[in-house]
Design brief:
The chain is an all-alpha fold. Helix content is 83%, strand content 1%. The protein is built from 16 helices and 2 strands. Strands 1-2 form a two-stranded antiparallel sheet. The longest helix is centred in the N-terminal third of the chain and has 30 residues. The two termini are 29 Å apart. The relative contact order is 0.15.
Length: 396
């Protein structure tokens, strides 16, 4: 096996603060921009809205072998900076064009750059803080991103309503500039490791599969990724069912639905801070426990006899969501050698986005057939059952 790439550290606290703050600002802009684009395309019909959502997912799935290879074969901070600058350059024409086809096409290009940002960031965190504190680094990063996901949708709605979608999208382009500036100031460098003989002669096909093989060949990661993929496919039904559940069945207004989203986001922020407190001997169980709480939260919303109970279930689901995200990244970082982490993180992202796409595509017909409350109970319960089975498998 090749040795790990050369890591040249700057001030760990400073670099992590820069990366976390930049990602928080960027996440705010991303979610605000998505709201603005959905509102812009809504009059064009559901087909264009679906195409936009697909454009957000597809690049991560299709390009994972390429971006993972880039992260591992070139200095990681440079790859991250290049991708963020690319995002900024693409975001400007997205703000200006109005034709649906041009908007979706540019969004695919933006998604390609975005597909590079996540594995590069995840691979850089252990280099910044050190292997022994990587999980705390992931938790700090997730806190900033979660805050952005809470603020962003409201900001996008306000900016679009007051000034139009172009303004909201230009603000998003500005957030990429902020993130690029933060990345430029980061001093830590994760240099590529020398390529060993087996990897060099593995051929393009093996290179394309390597990230997935790294995850599949590790029994713990294999079980964790299967649990997460099935749980996510079940959980994204909540995105479709929740508006009908809260407004049509529980009798609240758009404000109450907004409270649900805020409580879920607050739960994510709280849950993302829990994995660093778990003893090392039990860390393999945390992603499954997080997904279990998320599934129980969704089932609880479906079962809730009143709005107050649904709000409590929402916060519980968010806590599980935050736990699962951070602990899964930390587990991959711990169990995959440094020089292969870019490909492993890219492959795990592709698996999760595929699960999201499958669950989203199935959610509409399921909710229409079962009604929102029954659908959330059934698929929240299914996700929970998979998590329990996964915990048993991990224990063995």
């Amino acid at each position: 096996m090749a040795s790990a790439g050369l890591i040249r550290r700057g001030g760990a606290a400073r670099d992590l603060w820069l990366l976390g703050a930049g990602m928080a600002v960027s996440a705010t802009g991303d979610t605000a921009a998505l709201v603005a684009l959905l509102l812009r395309l809504r009059p064009e019909g559901t087909g264009w809205v679906a195409a936009l959502l697909a454009a957000q997912l597809i690049p991560t799935v299709l390009l994972s072998p390429v971006v993972g290879h880039l992260v591992d074969r070139f200095e990681t901070r440079r790859v991250l900076l290049t991708a963020v600058v690319g995002q900024a350059l693409v975001a400007i024409p997205i703000a200006i064009v109005t034709a649906p086809a041009a908007t979706v096409s540019l969004f695919v290009v933006l998604g390609a750059f975005n597909a590079t940002v996540r594995p590069a960031t995840n691979a850089l965190v252990p280099a910044i803080v050190g292997e022994e504190r990587a999980i705390a680094g992931y938790a700090r990063l997730a806190l900033g991103q979660s805050l952005g996901w809470v603020i962003g949708p409201a900001l996008g709605g306000v900016l679009t309503g007051a000034f139009g979608s172009t303004t909201a999208l230009l603000v998003d382009a500005g957030t990429f500039v902020v993130l690029a500036g933060a990345c430029f100031l980061i001093q830590t460098r994760r240099e590529p490791a020398p390529v060993d003989a087996a990897e060099a002669h593995g051929g393009r096909g093996r290179q394309a599969r390597l990230g997935f093989q790294l995850l599949w060949n590790d029994r713990v990661l294999r079980v964790v990724l299967i649990i997460s993929a099935i749980s996510i496919a079940c959980a994204v039904l909540d995105n479709v069912a929740a508006p009908f559940r809260f407004i049509d069945q529980l009798g609240t207004t758009a404000t109450g639905y907004g409270v649900y989203l805020a409580l879920w986001g607050a739960g994510v922020m709280a849950g993302s801070q829990l994995p660093p407190r778990v003893p090392t001997a039990r860390e393999r169980y945390v992603p499954a426990v997080g997904n279990l709480l998320c599934s129980l939260g969704i089932a609880g919303i479906g079962l809730a006899p009143s709005l107050a109970f649904a709000f409590v279930a929402s916060a519980l689901g968010g806590v599980g969501n935050g736990m699962a995200n951070v602990s899964q990244n930390a587990l991959i970082g711990k169990r995959v050698p440094d020089h292969q982490r870019g490909r492993a993180f890219a492959a795990s992202g592709a698996v999760m986005q595929t699960a999201t796409g499958v669950g989203t595509a199935a959610a509409g017909p399921i909710v229409a057939t079962l009604d929102a409350d029954v659908a959330m109970m059934v698929f929240g319960g299914l996700g929970a059952a998979v998590c329990v089975a996964g915990l048993v498998a991990l224990r063995r």
